[in-house]
Every structure is written in structure tokens, then in C-alpha cells.
Amino acid sequence: MSAPATALPHASLLHLSPHPALGPWARTRLTRSRCLASLAPVPAPLPADANHLVQTLCASGRLARAAALLQGLPAPTQRTYESLLLAAARAGDAALAASVHRRLEADPVFRSDPFLSTRLIDAYALLGSLPAARQVFDEAPVKSIFVWNALLKALALADHGEEALARLADMGRLGVPVDSYSYAHGLKACIAASASHVPASALVREIHAHAVCRGYGLHTHVATTLIDCYAKLGIVSYAERVFAIMPERNVVSWTAMIGCYAKNERPGDAILLFQEMMASDADIVPNSITIVSILHACAGVNALWQGKVLHAYILRRGFYSLVSVLNALMAMYMKCGCLEVGRHIFNWIGHRRDVVSWNTLISGYGMHGFGHEAIQVFEEMTQVGVSPSIITFISVLGACSHAGLVDEGKRLFESMVDYNVKPRAEHYACMVDLLGRAGHLDEAVELIQGMHIRPTPQVWGSLLGACRIHCHVEYAEMACSQLFDLEPRNAGNYVLLADIYSRAKLHNQVEVLKDLLKEHALEKLPGCSWIEVKKKLHMFVSVDNKNSQVEELQALIGEFVTEMKNDGYVPDTGVVLYDIEEEEKEKILIGHSEKLAVAFGLINSGRGEVIRITKNLRLCEDCHSVTKFISKFTEREIIVRDVNRFHHFRDGICSCGDYW
DNA sequence: TTAGGGTTAG
Description:
Elements: H1 9-13, H2 24-36, H3 50-59, H4 63-72, H5 78-91, H6 94-105, H7 114-126, H8 130-139, H9 145-157, H10 161-174, H11 180-192, H12 200-213, H13 220-233, H14 236-245, H15 251-263, H16 267-280, H17 288-301, H18 304-317, H19 323-335, H20 339-349, H21 355-367, H22 371-383, H23 390-403, H24 406-415, H25 425-437, H26 441-449, H27 457-470, H28 473-486, H29 491-503, H30 507-519, E1 528-533, E2 536-541, H31 550-566, H32 582-590, H33 593-604, E3 611-615, H34 621-633, E4 638-641, E5 646-650, E6 653-654
Parallel strand pairs: 3-4
Antiparallel strand pairs: 1-2, 1-3, 4-5, 5-6
Helix pairs in contact: 3-4, 3-5, 4-6, 5-6, 5-7, 7-8, 7-9, 8-9, 9-10, 9-11, 10-11, 11-12, 11-13, 12-13, 13-14, 13-15, 14-15, 15-16, 15-17, 16-17, 17-18, 17-19, 18-19, 19-20, 19-21, 20-21, 21-22, 21-23, 22-23, 23-24, 23-25, 24-25, 25-26, 25-27, 26-27, 27-28, 27-29, 28-29, 29-30, 31-33
The structure holds one DNA strand.
């Protein structure tokens, strides 16, 4: 069919050949603009700078045009191949990468080029095609150290840690020099070597020793990777040792060490290290990743004042344009009890919101007990076309669980398939928690028994937690028979079962469990609470004898307890597992860290101020009852964040409705 | 040519 006579003048002009009077520069420009407009056919012969044109198309994401041009290109340059491979990897276009690969294999100039072999391996690794990456390596005629390092990186990225370590060993055997890049990839591979019969910590230590012997132990990138590896393995003291001896620390190594503390439940130390970093050297300036890490640490200890200082810093440094920073800021406010400020930041982010922003808001509502609002945000998210992720469903199911929304949770769990999200063990753990807390224990057990994947400790842990609430001995024993096998060093499981036995008056079994704890030298995680008063963070440990004010604090709590007893309150000594007199048990209850923190807040803050506390464990029933009473008796608002959720105490009532 | 640190949940 011929073009209509009324075709637009500019469109028809594009089909004319460049005027012979035009110079070479103008002719090339005209040809390029036609190609970019995708209206002109591929010109033949190709312009003199066709390689440059392909590179420009790649940079602007017009891959179809770039790929078409490549086919007729008589002499692609190294840079052209590189641009195409990088663009294909970024766009997730595996077909394009394969087509460039085929073209390269037929090119006598570059088919043996080690530079392009590394680029091919990189591209296939990013596209998730490990077999193809491996094949490029095996067939590469020249295996430079770059090619080896690219393979190590690809294997570590694909979680093929054992194979990466085997290749690293090959390098030594074949006399290929190993450099700092090889060590950095090798260390990451240790963490990915989950199926290895050798523990990851032993692998990291071995490579660490090797790097030290070869003089790479203090290399900035190697040492920073070491800090991160030890952080992920939970060996904080080793990370500290590496950090301490680093001669030339930069912002990344400081951030890695701050992140190490934050990951390993030492947010207070993360904040102290950040303050040390700021005071240490004018050249070390925190970047957005440092800010995100430290905001996470502030959220961990409810350090609202420090978080507000960071908020001001974010504004000063212009980080307000970065969504990742705003997401972390939003999470910090919500975890520090300021739900509305978090919502305000979410609104402010506007159309730049990513899936993390939505997840943060959903989980924020969830942890504050606003289940319906969390579901509403979930629905809004899907309506505007954002695909829910694995974490979205964990967040929204968790929100249903905290609010006791059983039917809504079931509906959402069943809808996961509609969003192409396959339920994982984490989602089953959420559902077991939701059903179990609400008292549907039989249904929770049926769900576990029908799982298509092996139940993880989290799933059994959810069942055990529910059994503790409803004092169900039989199912608790079922859960523990799995948990003691799966995680024999987790003292918390033994303590929970002992608690259930204690409430069921099965004292002999309590003793058996206490003996087991002693036999395995397991220690219960001590209860710990934090409170920020007058811009300073204070920490309390249960039965704390170190704080100088502790006697005064306990006396104050004792007065409240006496008042409560007049109203019929009976201390819930069931949570104390020691075989001691009732009076002694009551003393232990008075020494619980959250009660000490509440009393400290009352004494050291003004009447109108909200008391904000964070606890590292679940709030015990007795502390819950006492805090409710204190909120009414003293007319103070008290907000406690425990390991699961928020409790807003006001006028003798808690926002959780005694359901947590 | 290549490499190191981060947010959302449980």
C-alpha cells in the first residue's frame, strides 16, 4: 500500500536522501536523527559513525534499533559490543545478549578479546544465566585475571558459593595471580556457600588468613568485605578487630561497621560509632547509605531525638530527593511511635513512591494495630498498579494478625496467587500466627501439615507462641519436638515451653527443661528496655542493679502495685520460672526492665510529655497490666514498642485491646 | 575493565 498523498511534510522528508550539497557532518546528523525517530529504514550504506550511533541508542534505551543496526555493521568496535551487552543486561533482555554473543563469536577481531569475555560474563550473570556465563569462561581463549574475577563474581551472585571457592582454588593451582578483587568475590562466595559441609565462618576465616598472607588483609575493599561478612555471620568481635586495624578507613568501611552493629541487635553501638565517625575526620562525610543505616539503628532503640537531628541533616545535605532515604526516615518515625509523621512523609514522596515506601506504610499501620488501614493501603497500592512483593504480603498479613482480622488475612493469603507471589515459609508463619493468636489452633496445625514446603523454625515458632497465649500443651510439645531439632541453641524455645508447663502446673517438666538449659549451657536473652529522656538514651536490664536510681524506681513501682492490689490486682507470677517464694517472685516482677523504664520516664520527664519505651522481647502480661494502671493513675500517655508491635497506653486502656 | 556499605518483614 502506497503512502497517502496527505502525509505530513516532515514525515515524507525523512524518506528523502540527504541533499548532495550537504557536508558529511550534516549528512550524518540527518541520518542519525532519522534513526532515532525510528521512522527511517536502516540506511545503507551505514553512516561512517554507525558505531557511535549504536552506542547512543544503547545509552537511550532504544535497544531494538541498536540491535537492528548491529546486524549490518561491518566493523563493530569493542565499545559498541560493550554498550550493547551492558544495555541488554540493564534491560533484562537475554535475547539481545545472546544475539550480541553470536555476532561476537563470528567476529575475527574480537572473538578472543578477554575484555569482552568479562563483559559477556557480567551480562549473563546480571541476566541470571549462570550456565551461559560459565560457558563463556570455559570457551574464552584468553583467561586474564579480569575474566577469572568476572566468573567469581557471577558465581557468588548466583549463590554458587562452593563453585566460586573451587575456582578460586583453581587460580592458585594454575598460578593465576589472585588480587584484591578475587578476595572480595571469594569472601562473598563464602556467605553464599550455604550448602557447604564447612561452616561459612570457617571459610571466611580461611580466606581472611590467605589474604593476610598475601598482603591484602588491610586493603580497603577486602577489609570492608570482611567486616560485612563477619557482620552477616554475627561475629561482631571479628568485624571490630578488622575495623580497628584498618589504616585508612573511608566512609564505606565506617558504614559497614555501623551496619554490623545495626544488624546484630546493637543499635546503640551503631549510633555511638556514627557519632565517633562524625567527630573523627573532616574528610569522612556520611553519604545516603550511611544515613539509611543510622536511621535504621535509631529506629532500633527508639532514639527519636537523634532521628530528628538526622532529619535536619537530610534537609541540609539535600538527601530529601532520594526515595531510599525518605523510606528509611518514614520507617524511623513510625517505629519511634510517630505514625502520623511517617504518613506525612509518605504523602510527600508522592509519585516517586516505590514498593518499599508502600511496604513501610503497611507495616507501620500493622505494628500500631491499625489492620484495616493497612489493608486499605494495600488495596490502594494495587489499584495504582504497584505490584505487591513478598514483603508486602508479610507486612499486610502481619497487620491482620496484630488486629485479629482472621477472615481478611485468609482472603489476602489466598489472593497471593493472583499477584504471582508464591507463598513462602514466611507467609505460612504469618498465617499460623494469625490463626493461632485468634485461637484457631487446629486450623493452624492443619495449615502446617498441608504445606508444600518444609516448615521452617519460624513456622513452628509461630505455633509455639500461639500455644503460649492459649496454654495448649499438646501442640506446644509438637512444635518443640521440631524446634529443638532445628535450632537446638535457641534458648527462647525452651523458655516458652517451660512457661507453658508452668501455667499448666506441670512443675516436673519445668524442672526438666531448666536442666536441659543448664546442660547445653544456654542462657535466656535478658529483657532490656530503652527510653530517651532529655535527648539521652537510657537502657535498663531486668533486675538492674547498675543504675544508681534503681532503688528509687523500684520503690515507685512498689507504690503503684500496692494501689493496684487495693483494686483487686494479683501479680502474674506465672511468668517467673524460678522455684522461689511468691514474695520473691513479686520482687522479680517489679524489677522487669520495662517497669524500670516507665518509672524512670515518670520521674525524669515533664507531665505533658509522652513516655516512649522500646523493649527487646515481647511485653509480659504483668508489665502490660501495671502499665495500663500507671497510665490512668498518673494521667500519662505511655507508648511501648515490644518485639512484635506497639502498645499505646492511655487512661488505663491499651491500643492492642489486650490482644498481642 | 572489575570490587566494599543501605531501607521495607519475620
